[in-house]
Amino acid sequence: MIPAPFDYHAPKTLDEAIGLLQRHGEEAKVLSGGQSLLPLLKLRLGFATQLVDIGRIPGLSYIKEENGFLKIGGATSESALERSDLIRQRYPLLFDTTRVIADPLVRNRATIGGNLAHGDPANDHPAAMLALGADIVVRGSGGERVIPITEFFTGLFQTALAGDVILTEIRIPVPAANSGGAYVKLERKVGDYATAATAAQLALGSKGKIASAGIGLTNAGTVPVKATDAERFLTGKAPDEVAFAEAGRLAAAAASPSADWRGSVEYKREMVRVLTGRALARAAERAGGQ
Amino acid sequence: MAKHAIHITVNGTAHDVEVDSRLLLVHLIRDELRLTGTHIGCDTTHCGACTVLLDGEPVKSCTVLAVQADGRELKTVEGLTANGKLHPVQQGFWDEHGLQCGYCTPGMLMTSYALLQRNSNPTEAEIREAISGNLCRCTGYVNIVKAVQHAAANIG
Asked: Which of B64, B133, B134 lies closest to A34 in CB terms?
């Protein structure tokens, strides 16, 4: 399949890229790893007459802890995340997530910024970022802006990225002591979108009670879902099976999946319940609570 | 539609070519450079038949623009054989009968080659994980896994 014609630009700096987005407005799309955008253009489900490739701009790929945040450059590849000792040792939720995105070959090209900017509720990073309370850093002609992840996803394939802005960084608060997270995904085969998946992040406080909980759901609605009722319920509770079972029920109630070849609405909601319980149990285990 | 003059090295040979913005890397490889060992399977980023190494990393060349490969190094299945001798990965597929129809084989070879470059002694689980983006509809993967293990033993 051949995409419809477009012009391709390979800016060497962010300012140059922002200038191109300004000049071409709605005609332009940002190309990062291309693993979502190129299939869309090939299938002609999406159109752009100007592609601005940010892949040749230096300094957009990094993973570091700084000033209380984990900072990930927008153009960091999934395989770089997967191979990062920092991610594997300190951010198990992100490590779990990265390893089930598409397949290893796609992960060599796909970027974390692209996974979020695509605005697909079936993508895996959005739920993880909701659970981790991430901030999205963007740059445009108006300078730098920080968008809380809760305000980032505005509709199906829609995000708060508007006009000439480029997603440059993801910031995740460094987890407190006795924290743990997990991503549990049900997929029919490697490379498929989730039938259902839950991202869970727990911080345990004094006496081993849950000090805070973050829960994100993949493919459970037109936008990535933050299971706030379940999060609120867990706060202050002991991290045990009873609490996790109830949190699973609350998360399932927050899900509004649609029926497709992966299953009926009822089945998917039931899977949200089960997977949320499992993700919470694994998160608690990693937090040292059980 | 814009044309771009690009410079790429394929299996050690430098090429200067002019490409359309929308030309896919797999079409550059097959149609312009006439290296038809790289196959087009699903054309939708699923099957991995079109896998090539871009700066040493296996990627699906149906989902990369040719212009994105400007200045980079490519390795295709034609680049595995050296001095008329099969690479141990190729020999492994031969000896262990790691194929039936052969359509997925170029992609399987490139992914397996890249795995062994990174990890010369992979476990069965690591091999299965590495080739999880390459689909074979004939063999059930058992002989492919054996082929990669055979290659690992012979690369030493």
From this structure: B64
State the Cα–Cα distance between residues A36 and A224, nearest whole angstrom: 17
Residue A79, chain B, CB below 8 Å: the answer is yes
Tally Cβ neighbours within 10 Å of residue A31: 23
Chain B contact for A1 (CB, 8 A cutoff): yes
B109 to B25, B74, B80, B144: CA distances (angstroms): 18, 15, 9, 9
| Interface ipTM above 0.90 | yes
Which chain A residues are closer than 8 Å to B54 by Cβ?
Answer: 108
Contact A107, A101 (CB under 8 A): yes
B1 confidence band (pLDDT: 50, 70, 90): low
pLDDT in tens, A74-106: 999 999 999 999 999 999 999 999 999 999 999
Helix, strand and coil percent figures for chain A, each rounded to 5: 40, 25, 35
Q: What's the pTM?
A: 0.96
- Determine what percent of chain A is predicted with pLDDT higher than 70: 99
Q: d(Cα A91, Cα B78) in Å, to the nearest integer? A: 40
Of A246, A235, A252, nearest to A201 by C-alpha is A235
CA distances (Å), B64 to each of A112, B29, B67, B70, B74, in order?
17, 12, 8, 11, 12
8 Å CB contact between B11 and B110: no
Interface of A with B in 14-43 (CB under 8 A): 34-35, 38-39, 41-43
Q: Alpha carbon of A276 to those of A243, A255, B28: distances in Å?
A: 11, 11, 46
Pairing, β B73-75 against β B51-54: antiparallel
Is residue B125 over pLDDT 70?
yes
Res B156: pLDDT: 64
Using a CB-CB cut-off of 8 Å, the residues of chain A touching B30 are: none
Report how far residue B129's alpha carbon sits from residue B123's, in angstroms, rounded to the nearest whole number: 10
Quick check: B117 contacting A, CB < 8 Å? no
pLDDT at B140: 85
Cα–Cα dist B87/A14, whole Å: 43
User: Which helix (H) or strand (E) segment is A179 a member of?
Assistant: strand A179-186
Q: Are strands A63-66 and A69-73 parallel, antiparallel or unpaired?
A: antiparallel
